[in-house]
Amino acid sequence: MIVFPRERARSVRALARKCVAGRPRGPAPPVVFESRAGTLSVWVHTADAVLTHTAPTAGGDGVLVVPMDVLTAVEGTGDEAVELVVGEGLRGEARWSARGVSHTHPFDRIEPGKPHRPPPPPDDWHPVPPAFLTALHECGRTAGREAGRFALTRVQVAGSAGRVAGTDGRTALIWDGFALPFDEDLLVPAVPVFGDQTLAAGPAVRVGRTADHLVVEVGPWRVFLTADATGRYPDVAGAVPKHAPTVVTLDSADAAALLAAWPRLPGADVACHPVTLAVDGGVVVRGRDEATGAVETVRLARPAVTGPTARIAVDRQVLARALALGCTTVRVADGRPVVFAGGGRTVVTMALDPDPAAEVEPATTGIAAADLVRIPEPVPERRIAVRPASNGHAAPDPPPTDPVDPVVVAEDLRAALADAAAKAGRLVAALKSRRKEQKALTQVWSSLKALHLGPGGSP
User: Which residue range is the domain that position 289 belongs to?
Assistant: First the structure.
């Protein structure tokens, strides 16, 4: 007989549903119970991970495999005991009480086999901070939903670099600062289980490595993430621009004010809706309602700005998420990705087409009005050029120029190629549209001729 509390059934089922990347596919996996020497282990194999839980039990020894709907039937929020009793053949029955009322649920057990065995645990465990769970969850949210040439549906855990990264090809999140017990770069499924409060409330977090899995342990829970040995992943860290002429640093009050005003900015229910950041000594964030044309503005009072003026458009959701992650330093370079950084976290995103709101100076649409903090431009010192005396000697050679930085040249070339590719795409789209228009006109003219409705004609 297998014995466990109703709350355990609820937790196992809820976490198992989150051990799947994307939408669940196919029938729910079975649940395996193994009771040995007063310890009950429960595990569930999904397509992307293996979830296990271990705790003391009052039941006897044995192994039982049941359908997931057994947990659905018996789950609850209390600690009332559930008993799984097996009769003759494959028939079984779940028994429990709720508020003094006895309940039963019949089920057909599944014959245990090799697919129902848990994977072997790591030989060594290494403690990591709880932020590692958040990094896995947030990078998983950033991962792509469709695989292509690169394994963008995966999360990269770089052992030697101590980094977790996720990208969908347009936006990337890089989370640094972890000491991991392996050197290789692992690609693991982007499962949402690490954002669940059950794991977030765990007492300690440890990680381990096996031949096939990255294993994350939180208290009595373990999640085995299958390592993708064949997938390719882009150099996400290398995509971060090394040089940015314009840098904006928001203090905590400005970031909090902007996030508080965020629900009132247009585009909350529109995917990839642009907002404009206008940097000119201060910072103004503008959003435009596509339906009404109304423009809302948030003026930040205390940003620190260095570098030339800039005006960029980014995805509304990406900007809000970057601020929520504490990435309050914004680095802007013309023709390059926009970088939000802070606290060991970096969000890199492609700039969108300029928002029409950027060209509008609204009169009274400000949400958080405040005077812009402007850093005065230094007045250049006036100098009078004086022709040096040669005293009959040849003029000295000009001083050597600074050597060319190949990284800067490479980034400039990459930006130029990206701009050329975008322009080529717009040209192809325009040509296709032109051909469609000409084809439509030809069809209309043919129809008119067939009806004898040419110029000056009549039916």
Answer: 240-368
User: Collapsing DSSP states into helix, strand and coil, what is residue 214?
Assistant: strand
Alpha carbon distance 167, 182 (integer Å): 22
Residues pairing with 39 in the sheet: 36, 56
Over the range 308-323, which residues count as b (16 or more CB within 10 Å of their CB) and which as e? Answer: eebbbbbbbbbbbbbb
**Same domain, yes or no, for 292 and 278?**
yes
Backbone angles phi, psi at 439, to 5 degrees: -65, -40
E strand segments, 333-447: 338-342, 345-349, 366-368
Task: Fill in the amino acid letter for 416.
Answer: A
**Same-domain check for residues 134 and 108:** no
What is the end-to-end Cα distance of the chain in Å, rounded?
89
State which of 72, 91, 116 marks the end of a domain. 116
Report the chain's C-alpha Rg in angstroms. 31
247 close to 330: Cβ distance less than 8 angstroms: yes
Q: Is 100 helix (H, G, I), strand (E, B) or coil?
A: coil
Nearest in space to 200 (alpha carbons), one of 131, 126, 127, 143: 131
Q: Is residue 443 part of a domain?
A: no
Yes or no: say if 156 and 185 are a contact pair by the CB < 8 Å rule: yes
Could you count the other beta carbons within 10 Å of the beta carbon of residue 417?
10
Consecutive H or E run containing 16: helix 6-17
From 234, 255, 282, the end of a domain falls on 234
∠ Cα 260 318 49 (to 5°): 115
Beta bridge partners of 306: 247
Question: Quick one: DSSP state of residue 262?
Answer: G
Contact 165, 158 (CB under 8 A): yes
Would you write out the chain's pLDDT as a tens digit for each of its 459 residues? 999 999 999 999 999 999 999 887 889 999 999 999 999 999 999 999 999 999 999 888 999 999 999 999 999 998 999 999 998 889 999 999 998 899 999 999 999 998 899 999 999 999 999 999 999 999 999 999 887 789 999 999 999 999 999 999 999 999 999 999 999 999 999 999 999 999 988 889 999 999 999 999 999 999 999 999 999 999 999 989 988 999 999 998 889 988 988 888 877 777 778 888 899 878 989 888 877 888 888 888 888 999 999 999 999 899 999 999 999 999 999 889 999 999 999 999 999 876 655 554 543 344 443 433 333 333 344 444 444 444 444 444 444 444 444 544 555 566 566 666 666 666 666 666 666 556 654 553 454 344 343 344 444
